[in-house]
Amino acid sequence: EDQVTQSPEALRLQEGESSSLNCSYTVSGLRGLFWYRQDPGKGPEFLFTLYSAGEEKEKERLKATLTKKESFLHITAPKPEDSATYLCAVRGVSGGSYIPTFGRGTSLIVHP
Amino acid sequence: GAGVSQTPSNKVTEKGKYVELRCDPISGHTALYWYRQSLGQGPEFLIYFQGTGAADDSGLPNDRFFAVRPEGSVSTLKIQRTERGDSAVYLCASRLSENSPLHFGNGTRLTVT
Predict the structure, then answer these.
(1) Does B43 contact chain A (CB < 8 Å)?
(2) Mean pLDDT score, B57-64
(3) Which residues does chain B have within 8 Å of residue A34's beta carbon, measured at their own beta carbons?
(4) A43/B56 touch (CB, cutoff 8 Å), yes or no
C-alpha cells in the first residue's frame, strides 16, 4: 500500500524567509510524485510531477526535488500570496491502476 | 479552456436522504476520479472511471455509495441513506492521458444534518 507523510503539518514564515516542505513516501515502483497547491474552498491545483530520483522542477519561487525516499518543496523568498496548503501525492505500479495517494498536506502561512 | 466543473458547490441534506453530486470533466479527458476530503485531511480516493466503466471502485466506503458515467463524460456520485459521517468535500478530477496529472474541480461541500 502506497503511503505519503508530509511534514511539518503547519508552517508560519515571514515574507522573504525561505524554507522547505517535506514529503516522505513508500511506494511499489514510483510512477510519479505530484505536488499540488490548495487554497481554502478550492480544489487542488497541479504544480509539478517528478518521476525519478535526482529530478528537479521549478516554477517561480517554488522548486521541487526528489530522492528515492522523499521529495522537498523549496520555497525561496516567499510572499503572502504563497499562503496555501501544499499537498504531495504518489502513484505506484500497484495493481496497474493509476490512483494517486495523497498526504495530509502542509499548511503554509506567510506573514507580510 | 474550461476546467472541471462540479455542482452543486454546497449541499445540505438531512440524515437518511439521498443525494447526487455531479462532475463535468475537462473536454477530452478520458479518465475521471472521485475523491473525498475531510477537514485537515488529504483527498481520499473513492472511484475512478476510464471511459464509461469503473476501472477501480475500491475506495467506495460501502454500498450506499455509487457512481456512474454513462456516456464517458459527465459523472454522478450517488449517496443513499446519508449519514452525518458522510459530511465532507467531494472532489472530482480528470486527466487526459496515462502520464498526465489529475486536474481537480473545486468540489461539492456536503453537510448531513
Answers:
(1) yes
(2) 96
(3) 101-102
(4) no
Distance from CA of A42 to the nearest CA of B (A): 5
* B22 min Cα distance to partner chain A (Å): 15
H/E segment holding residue B34: strand B31-37
pLDDT in tens, A55-87: 999 999 999 999 999 999 999 999 999 999 999
pLDDT at A18 over 90: yes
Closest CA to B66 of B34, B93, B37: B34
* Neighbour tally for A93: CB within 10 Å: 13
* Distant-in-sequence, close-in-space partners of A60: CB < 8 Å, separation ≥ 6: none
* Residue carrying C-alpha cell 514510483: A30
Rounded-to-integer distance, Cα B28 and Cα A32, Å? 22
Nearest to A104 among B42, B45, B103 (CB): B42
Alpha helices in chain B (DSSP H): none
Q: Do B93 and A43 touch (CB under 8 A)?
A: yes
Report the C-alpha gap between B53 and A41 in whole angstroms: 30
- Give Cα separations from A108 to A8, A57, A83, B38 (angstroms): 9, 20, 5, 18
Cβ atoms B42, A86 nearer than 8 A: no
Contact A34, B101 (CB under 8 A): yes
